[in-house]
Amino acid sequence: MTATIAHSLPTAKAQPHGTWEDRYLGSARALQDCVETLMDRMNMAVIYGGDKTADGAVINQTSNPRSWKSYKSVAQDIAGALRRLGCPRVSVIPDDMQFGRRLTENEVHMAWLNTGGVQGYSPLCHAASMLEMMGIPYVGHDPMTAGILDRKDVFKRFLMALGFPTAPFITWNMAEGPLDPASNERFRRVHGDHAGPFIVKPVSGRASLNVHWVEGRGGLSAAVASVHEATRSLVMIEPYLPGREFCVAVSGYVTAQRRELRRHKDPFVVCAIERVFQPDERIVTSMDVRPITGDRLRVLDPEQDAAVLRELADLGRAVYREMNIESLIRFDVRADEAGRLKILEANPKPDLKAPSRGQTSLVAASLSAFGMSYDDLILSLLADRLAFLFGERPGCVGRLKALLD
Ligand SMILES: Nc1ncnc2c1ncn2[C@@H]1O[C@H](COP(=O)(O)OP(=O)(O)O)[C@@H](O)[C@H]1O
Ligand SMILES: [Mg+2]
Question: Is the dihedral of CA 395, 400, 404, 405 positive or negative?
Answer without folding.
Answer: positive
